[in-house]
Design goal:
Layout (H helix, E strand, L loop, with lengths): L7 H14 L5 E3 H7 L4 H17 L6 E5 L3 E6 L5 H11 L1 H10 L6 H7 L4 H17 L2 E3 L5 E3 L1 H15 L9 H8 L16 H19 L15 H17 L5 H18 L13 H17 L4 H20 L1 H7 L6 H6 L1 H12 L5 H4 L2 H15 L2 H4 L3 E5 L5 H14 L4 E4 L8 E4 L3 H4 L4 E3 L6 H24 L1
Parallel strand pairs: 6-7, 6-8, 8-9
Antiparallel strand pairs: 1-3, 2-3, 4-5
Amino acid sequence: MFLTFLNKADKRKLVLLQYLENAVSLSETKEALMDNLTMSEFLINKTVQELNTDFYEFGLDEEFGIVTDGTVIKLNASGLATSDNVLTYYLDQSLKFSMLKECFFEQLSSLYEFATNHFLSHTPVYKEFKQFKQILNDYDIEVTKEFRLIGEENEIREFILLFFMKEYYLNQSVFPKEIETKRKTFDALNSQGWLNPQQSARMQIRKEQYLGIIITRMCNGHFLQNTVEDGLINAEHLRIIEELKDWLAKILPTVSLTTLEREAKEILRFLIVEGWLVENDRYIDQNHYITQLNEHFYTELSGRFALSQELLALLTTELTNIHYQLLSFSFSSRCEYQHLDVTYFLQTYPEYVAFCRNYLEANRNRPILWNNKEFLFFRYLILLISTIPLKEISVPLYVCVDFSYGRSYNQMIRNNIEKILDLNIQFQSFPDEKTHLTLSNMPFYGAMGINHILWLAPPRPVDWVNFTEKVVGIRREFLKKKFEK
């Protein structure tokens, strides 16, 4: 979604940078770049030059640099910045993003004035504004003749939060002083016993941005009309809602109590989803719909993998969190997880990737799952990876380790493999009919027709890469045969 706010040149530069960033060894041949990015050789060369200029202008030349020998193009990266940093700078320069901010703060009075303030002629500004309106329309957000944002209020707020979080790297004080003053009064609630103020920097920033967005919208007369059907009705919920209402009433004294209650419920829901409450999990209302989603996932998971009751119980809390977030903030959940590169997971956890993909494919007829498939795929996948050891579900992989340096050397190799791969590996001292792979520095195994990898001793980094790639290939064959049954 962020790319749509960039001009054509910045979008082209970012796409090339992201390609190199995700390439093996951070490099690619010029010919492959031309084919995969549909750019001419002239445009590739021009884009590389422009990127290097941008790195210097953004103060990122110590973190990034692109070099070429005429055939291969390579990204030099320090590891202290990513393409996300560059995206932030491009967004900051984007006319469409400037229009979004001015519409949000209701500071835009005319396109003529906007063009004048940005030292631009009127024709390109009108063209940018037309594109800007279309982008927002794709997200069901309308820009009125008065340059106001209207639509589903909770979705507008979630949309703005995504962009303000992206810009925070460059601009930590996007809100005017009067909004910041009102927002800081929320800190008085830290002493009430139900809020846990000791949170990560990311969570602190998200809360501050979200509250700033809510206060800005309410100050400009935009309130929630429809809220999620919720179960925020027990005594603990009601106590917090009343305290949130009291806080809102102090900073927005002219707003009706009915409106304040809707807003307080939405803030509480945000705090629960983000994990801000003391003993946060007990505040999540596990209603019938969430229970149904949980049980449906459990049924499919148990049918695919043999899991103990203990492991299934471990899944319960986080699965409930996932479905609660899905139902509470479906707009941002749907948008935030689009276009994620899952190559790493596909190579490292093909069993879990296959399950999550097949589960969602099988639920195409359930809009709540299919319409949010990117969010659910990622969150389900991370849940399985973090909760269920691969050793518990993977087919035994028989690996014969036989080097010419004897038993102790073989044991060292086995120990290192176990540190690198969390798999159900059964080591062997000699190959038999069960053996899937032989690892050795002795070439005669190749002559015996056995699936093998020949290593130097001691192994080089490339040897470990070849080994892990071979294991991934074998595991994919296991999966293919399993699904063909």
